[in-house]
Structures are given as C-alpha cells and as structure tokens.
Amino acid sequence: MSEITYRIVEHDGGWAYRLGDTYSETFASAAAARAAAVRASREQKVSDETAWIEYEISAGEWVTERADGHDRPETHVEG
User: For the chain, how many structural domains are there in total?
Assistant: First the structure.
C-alpha cells in the first residue's frame, strides 16, 4: 500500500496544503488549510471502481495503467 502526506505550508501570502510539488488553493489560516487537507486525505481513502487511467510523466510520455479502485493509499497530514 502506498502512503501520501499532505503538508501544511505558507504559500502565496497565506496557507496551503502541499502534496509533492503541487499546492492547494491558498487559505487565510493554517487551520483552514489543515481542515481542507484532512478532507482531501479522507477522500483519498474512498474506494471507487477499477478503471484504466492515462497520465503524462515528467519525460513527456503518456502511460496507461489499470487503477484498482480498492487499492487506496494510507494518508497523513503534517503541520
């Protein structure tokens, strides 16, 4: 099982949560950013249907793979 961590950080004059190199929208307070990150982390745990997905990797190549809708990551929120 994979693990992902949402981190609460100062961003763009306010607060945001970050996952990897991606930032959420900006919130007025760290508490609001944390609440949004907790909601997002809970949504990551919801099972879905198995499906084929496509995405582009950093090298500019497109990858197609089967996404098991029941293989959900373990999530954490820091900050």
Answer: 1
Maximum separation of any 2 CA atoms in the chain, in Å: 39
Note the pLDDT tens digit of each residue in 18-42. Answer: 999 999 999 999 999 999 999 999 9
Q: Which two tokens stand for residue 73?
A: 């990551």
Residues with Cβ < 8 Å from 8, sequence gap 6 or more?
Answer: 15, 16, 17, 18, 30, 33, 34, 37, 77, 78, 79
How would you class 15 by CB atoms within 10 Å of its CB: exposed for 0-12, middle for 13-18, buried for 19 or more?
buried
* Residue 3 confidence (pLDDT) above 80: yes
CA angle at residue 26 from 22 to 28, to 5 degrees?
150
Domain hosting 74: range is: 3-78
Q: Which 8-state DSSP code applies to residue 27?
A: B
